[in-house]
């Protein structure tokens, strides 16, 4: 970790801590990744776009499980009341009408088989390791660190604002219906990020806890970056697709 993200021995004010957390995102969030830049530039092949949707499904599917883990650890009823909205957003009221279902719709609209996507068997090994590490982190680290790791949502509306217009403009097989998942996400992410940020700023009240919160956000940024690294390595110019992973159809 760079010294830029080191909390001084005397600690930070809440305002200063927020500045550091936002600087972590400015440096490390995955909107800076080559794969994202290629996506917004319109240079991904359809196979690469399918691979992105299929692998990202693994992350989407683990989010409510991660949030349920945090919920189970929270002793504060107010925290539980606020946090359970995240599970409802992803699972829907009936367990299959929320954000995960809309992501599956995105994947199938790109031509992928729904059962293959849901099985996650064609996902890259690095993807499965990354999302598993995130779930384990939220179960094994402190509640403060688990909450702080969710602060990547501070930066989510910006990446959606870059991604969606570019995808609609540059890929003729993508429509607004394909990207329906993203319609509600900026508002949901902003709501959730505001709550989590307030929680972190209140509870990170020692230099040690402040450093733990910063490190948790760095870790989460690394998870998201690793997932795009794996996609770029497997489906980019290097073309190193692991055995058993998704194989795009070769254009005729």
Key terms:
Heme Oxygenase, Chain A, 11 helices, mainly alpha, globular, 252 residues
Structure report:
- The chain has helices spanning 14-28, 34-41, 46-73, 77-91, 99-109, 114-119, 125-140, 143-149, 156-170, 181-203, 207-235.
- It is mainly α and 252 residues long.
- It has a single domain (12-235), classed as Up-down Bundle (Heme Oxygenase, Chain A).
- The mean pLDDT is 95.
In short:
This protein is mainly α. It has helices at 14-28, 34-41, 46-73, 77-91, 99-109, 114-119, 125-140, 143-149, 156-170, 181-203, 207-235.
Whole-number radius of gyration?
18 Å
CATH topology term: Heme Oxygenase, Chain A
Helix percentage: 55-70%
- Tell me the number of strands: 0
CATH homology-level superfamily:
Heme oxygenase-like
Can you count the helices? Answer: 11
CATH secondary-structure class: Mainly Alpha
CATH architecture: Up-down Bundle
Stretches where pLDDT is under 50 for at least 5 consecutive residues are none
Q: What is this structure's SSE topology?
A:
Elements: H1 14-28, H2 34-41, H3 46-73, H4 77-91, H5 99-109, H6 114-119, H7 125-140, H8 143-149, H9 156-170, H10 181-203, H11 207-235
Helix pairs in contact: 1-11, 2-9, 3-4, 3-5, 3-7, 3-11, 7-11, 8-11, 9-10
């Amino acid at each position: 970790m760079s010294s830029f993200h080191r909390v001084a021995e005397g600690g930070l004010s809440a305002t200063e801590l927020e500045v550091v957390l936002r600087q972590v995102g400015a440096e490390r969030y995955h909107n800076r990744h080559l794969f994202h830049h290629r996506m917004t530039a319109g240079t991904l092949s359809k196979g690469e776009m399918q691979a992105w949707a299929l692998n990202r499904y693994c992350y989407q599917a683990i989010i409510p499980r991660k949030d349920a883990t945090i919920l189970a650890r929270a002793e504060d009823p107010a925290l539980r009341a606020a946090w359970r909205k995240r599970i409802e957003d992803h699972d829907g009221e009936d367990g299959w009408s929320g954000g995960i279902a809309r992501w599956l719709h995105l994947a199938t609209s790109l031509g992928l088989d729904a059962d293959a996507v849901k099985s996650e068997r064609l996902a890259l090994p690095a993807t499965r390791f990354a999302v598993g590490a995130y779930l384990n982190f939220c179960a094994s680290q402190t509640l403060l660190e688990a909450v702080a790791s969710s602060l990547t949502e501070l930066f989510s509306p910006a990446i959606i604002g870059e991604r969606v217009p570019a995808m609609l403009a540059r890929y003729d097989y993508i429509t607004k219906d394909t990207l329906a998942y993203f319609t509600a996400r900026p508002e949901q992410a902003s709501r959730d990020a505001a709550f989590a940020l307030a929680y972190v700023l209140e509870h990170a009240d020692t230099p040690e806890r402040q450093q733990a919160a910063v490190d948790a956000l760095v870790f989460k940024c690394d998870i998201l970056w690793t997932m795009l690294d794996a996609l770029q390595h497997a489906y980019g110019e290097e073309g190193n697709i692991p055995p058993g992973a998704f194989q795009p159809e070769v254009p005729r």
